[in-house]
Structure formats: structure tokens, C-alpha cells
Design brief:
eight-stranded antiparallel sheet; elongated; alpha+beta; six-stranded mixed sheet
Length: 547
């Protein structure tokens, strides 16, 4: 039967292939290069149906519309292929759900799967045998799109003719079910079939023609055994990082040594059109430039932004932060074309780097802002103002904010309203802590001067756009208010003491550093249990007349 079936299919497959639109055929032809779609192992489903349902709906509909009339007029004298197929059920019933948005070809293929058990699998087996003979497939030539379309159309046309033969003999000649079956069969085959000769070269030419500089992006990269890599393919070999303590250039990529042993780290990648004018070390512990030769191009970190898709000499600047503190560990890689040159170290500050280079480790830095990192995991992480006041009772603090202490509101309702500004207060430890979620009244000078008339008031504001304001008032007078890292604090001695040792120029943990300063100035900080107390009390106050 094999030779007879092959001859029958070969006689008519060119006519079917001729009506297949190139765009959906190219989608099928590229499936071998696409990431495998996730399957749910606990949900049993035919391989053919799963492959069909994984295709974009427009592909299914375009193919169905293009071939329906051709299949209806197709005459294929062929040997019997369904002799081993179980007979259709003689009794009983079945049902399945369908939605109006589901393509007709998908719906009819599911129906065919239930009405003639084994038919989809039979078509898959027959088609797999036919495409194994490359003589039935067209020569794929041209550019990337042309090769992909020819590859996809060749397999799909064979599956369509085979499905037509089998479905008609099984008494199920409907075009929609035939098309859906053929698409599922072809997609399943094309995910495993090798790409045609010449496709890799054509794809590279397409990538080169479409590549534009600069490129930038960020991703989360898996770390294994303390390393990740910017790589063109296989993971490069690497040594002990004793040279600079951070990164090594190797054949096929650049390997970066991490503090974290396993897990994931955030990595930004920038591919530059020109070399950077200066080396920015602010906010980074270690910064190293390396020369690297790309054998092919298109190197990436975890499948994100790719380097230029052509070979050549490049410079890679590796920035690292937090290798001694995996809670905040992160990286940025800058790449630009440059002739070979020796490595250059721009910053070498973390303890891991010193250890790898065989140098004495620096002392562990005192970083009081670390204890406020819980803010980033709380509901205040996006935008908030935290104000601490001493010398006044809670009612007077509320009045300073323009709120009426006699009119408490349900906290849950105010959170859901997203309307007027509001605050919640806690009176404890001789101070009042005021919390504004997504508000900023506590950063206003009139509010702080009024609240500080009998003592002190300080606030830290931040929002989703990266705007911040750190403010201090004492005895009814504003002592300093500025944006950390941009503005300058006043010369007030007590403000200077509150800011001592806090590197506000460094954007890392900037909100947390501001909260440390507020605590130092007022003697009372914000703690996780404070937010828990606020939630437990469930009371907040509308700010009707903000300062």
C-alpha cells in the first residue's frame, strides 16, 4: 500500500500546495525553531488535537478558507487505508463543549476524533511515512520567508491529501475536519523535522538585515553553580575568575561569576552603536571591561536582547551589584564593537571579587538601610509617604494633615475608592506614625511645620515614577526638604546627623535610606508590625484640606 499511496498523493499534492497561502505556511515551517508550548500532563488529549489547538487561530482560518474548494473537487484514486481502523460506535452518545469563538476546523476535528476513534492517529502515521520520502517535498529555496513557507506548505499539502483520502473512506468527508486534522498532523511533524538546507543561512541574513542599533532590554537569568553567560550557543568554558574577580571572555561568550549559587538574577543588556563616553560606576560594586570575539553573533543572556548577528570583535562591560548580598544582586552588560584590547577594571568593591582575586577582603559595610527592605515587599512599595511626628497627639497630627479626627472612615473602603487622599495613624512610643498609601500630603512644608510645632516631624515620599522627597521640620520650622540624590540638604546639624553615612547619590535602596534618616531625626521608625496594627484597626481619615 505504501508505494500506491505515495503515488496517489504525489499526483495531486502539487495542486493543493499551489493554493496554500505563504504566510500561514511559513508559520508552520518555522515551528521547529519556536519554543515548545507547555502541555498539561494531567489533561489527556490527542497529539494531533493538541498541535492544532496550539496554532494561532488566524493560521487555521486562513488555511481552511484557502483549500476548502480545492479539497471538495479533489479526485484521488487510492488504495484503502482505513482497513485497520475500528468501526464507528454503533450505539451510545458523547458530548463536548464548544464556544462560538472556536474555529470551525478545530471544532470539527474534535468531533471527528470522537466520531471515528483512531482516525487522527492513522492520518498522522500515514503522513509521517510519506514525508520521510523527501521526493514528495518541494525544494525550499529563496529568502527566510520563502524557505519557511515552502517547508510548511510541503508538509501540510501531504497531510491534507492524506487526511482527505482517509476521512472520505471513513465516511467523514467534511472539509473542516479534514483541514483541522491535517494542520494538527503537519504541525506535530514540523516541530520535530529538521529545517531545510539553507534555512540557517537565510535566517541569519534576515536577522542581519533587520538588526538595528542600539538595543536594550532586561530579563531574569538562571544561575547555575555561581555563573551565567552571554553566549552564542553552548555554555562557554571558564576558569577561576582570578584575573578580575567578575567575568571571563571565552570562545562562544562571556561568563559572569555571581554571588548566588543557583536561582535567578536580573540582568540588563545594552548593545550600543558607539562606545560609551565614560564608565558609570555609581550604584555598582564591580565594573569590568573585557574584549570578546563573536564567532557567529546573536549572543544573548537567557534569550533576551541579542548582540549583532554577525561575527566580530566586541567590548563587553560587566556591571555587578549585590554579590555579597543576594537579596539585591543584579547585573548589567553593555556591548559595543571594538578592536581587541586588554581588560580594564573600573570598580572593584565587593568582598567576593576581592576573594576571587586573592586580595584581602574589605570589612563588612554597615548599611542600616538594609533593615527597611521589607518595604519593597509591602503594599507601600509602589508609592507612599511615611511621616513621623513627635510632641503632638494623634488628633493634632490629623488636623495638621487637614483631616478630621472625629470622622474616621473604614480603611478597606478608602483603599478601594482610589479617590481623595487619606492617611492612617498610629500613636506609640511617644510619636505618631502617619501612613499615606499612594499619597504625598506629608511632604508638604505647611503640614510639616504645623506638625512639628511642639517637637519634630520628618517624612519620606516616593512614587512609581521614581520621584522622592525627604523632609525635616523642628519647632514649627522646615529645616530641610530635598529630593535624595538630586537636591542638597540644608546645613542643619541635626539633619546632617540623620543623613550621616547614607549614600544618597547611590540610587540603590534610596527609599530605605530616607526612612533611616526619618527614624534618626525623630527617634521612631516604621516597622512591619505597624502596618499590621493599621490593618487590624481598620480605620483611616480623609484629607479634605491638605496643606
Amino acid at each position: 500500500m505504501g508505494d500506491d499511496l505515495a503515488a496517489a498523493v504525489a499526483a495531486v499534492v502539487p495542486a493543493v500546495r499551489a493554493v496554500l497561502p505563504p504566510a500561514p505556511a511559513a508559520v508552520l515551517g518555522r515551528l521547529r525553531c519556536e519554543p515548545e508550548r507547555r502541555r498539561f500532563p494531567d489533561v489527556p488529549e490527542s497529539e494531533v488535537l493538541w498541535s492544532l489547538r496550539s496554532l494561532p487561530p488566524w493560521v487555521v482560518e486562513r488555511v481552511h478558507g484557502a483549500v476548502e474548494l480545492t479539497l471538495a473537487g479533489l479526485t484521488v484514486p487510492a488504495p484503502s487505508v482505513t482497513a485497520a481502523l475500528p468501526p464507528p460506535p454503533s450505539s451510545g452518545a458523547f458530548a463536548f463543549l464548544a464556544s462560538e469563538s472556536e474555529a470551525e476546523a478545530v471544532r470539527e476535528t474534535r468531533l471527528l476524533h470522537h466520531a471515528r476513534p483512531g482516525l487522527l492517529e492513522l492520518v498522522a502515521d500515514l503522513t509521517a511515512g510519506l514525508v520521510a520520502d523527501d521526493r514528495l517535498l518541494p525544494t525550499a529555496e529563496g529568502d527566510e520567508a520563502g524557505i519557511a513557507a515552502a517547508h510548511g506548505a510541503g508538509h501540510l499539502a501531504i497531510a491534507l491529501v492524506t487526511a482527505t483520502i482517509a476521512a472520505r473512506e471513513a465516511g467523514r468527508p467534511g472539509a473542516a475536519g479534514i483541514v483541522g486534522t491535517a494542520l494538527g498532523v503537519a504541525a506535530n511533524l514540523l516541530r520535530a523535522r529538521p529545517m531545510p538546507d539553507g534555512y540557517a543561512a537565510a535566517l541569519r541574513e534576515k536577522q542581519r538585515a533587520e538588526y538595528r542599533l542600539p538595543q536594550s532590554g532586561s530579563t531574569s537569568v538562571n544561575v547555575r553553580d555561581h555563573v551565567f553567560a552571554l553566549t552564542e550557543g553552548e555554555f562557554p568554558s571558564f576558569g577561576d575568575f582570578a584575573d578580575n574577580g567578575l567575568a571571563e571572555a571565552a570562545a562562544g561568550g562571556v561568563v559572569v561569576r555571581t554571588g548566588r549559587e543557583n536561582g535567578s538574577v536580573p540582568v540588563g543588556v545594552r548593545v550600543l552603536a558607539e562606545p560609551p563616553a565614560t564608565a558609570d560606576t555609581l550604584g555598582w560594586d564591580e565594573v569590568v571591561d573585557l574584549g570578546w570575539h563573536a564567532e557567529h553573533g546573536s549572543a544573548s543572556v537567557g534569550g533576551g536582547v541579542q548582540t549583532p548577528p554577525w561575527p566580530g570583535d566586541y567590548r563587553v562591560r560587566v556591571h555587578a551589584y549585590g554579590r555579597d548580598d543576594p537579596e539585591t544582586e543584579g547585573y548589567s552588560l553593555w556591548v559595543w564593537a571594538a578592536p581587541p584590547a586588554p581588560p580594564v577594571v573600573h570598580a572593584r568593591a565587593d568582598r567576593l571579587g576581592h576573594r576571587l582575586r586573592g586580595e584581602p577582603e574589605p570589612p563588612v559595610a554597615d548599611r542600616p538601610e538594609v533593615r527597611y527592605r521589607w518595604i519593597g515587599r509591602s503594599r507601600l512599595t509602589v508609592a507612599a509617604t511615611v511621616t513621623v511626628v513627635t510632641g503632638l497627639p494623634a488628633d493634632d497630627v490629623l488636623r495638621a494633615f487637614g483631616a478630621d479626627p472625629g470622622r474616621p472612615e473604614p480603611l478597606a473602603e478608602l483603599r478601594e475608592a482610589y479617590a481623595d487622599p487619606w492617611l492612617a495613624v498610629l500613636e506609640l512610643d511617644g510619636a505618631v506614625v502617619a501612613i499615606e498609601e499612594n499619597g504625598f500630603t506629608g511632604s508638604h512644608a505647611p503640614v510639616l511645620t504645623t506638625a512639628s510645632r511642639a517637637g519634630r516631624a520628618a517624612s519620606m515620599f516616593w512614587n512609581v515614577n521614581g520621584m522622592t522627597r525627604l523632609s525635616f521640620a523642628r519647632g514649627g520650622e522646615l529645616r530641610s526638604a530635598f529630593e535624595p540624590g538630586l537636591g542638597e540638604p540644608s546645613a542643619d546639624e541635626e539633619v546632617a546627623a540623620a543623613l550621616a553615612g547614607l549614600d544618597l547619590e547611590n540610587f540603590r535602596d534610596r527609599n530605605e535610606k530616607g526612612l533611616v534618616a526619618v527614624e534618626r531625626f525623630t527617634g521612631r521608625g516604621l516597622y512591619p508590625e505597624d502596618l499590621e496594627d493599621i490593618d487590624r484597626r481598620g480605620v483611616a481619615y480623609l484629607i479634605s484640606d491638605p496643606g
